[in-house]
Amino acid sequence: MEKAMQQSHGMGYMEYSRKLDKRMLVEKRREMSYQKSRQVVAEYDRQLFR
Question: Which InterPro entries does the entry link to (predicted)?
Answer without folding.
Answer: YuzK
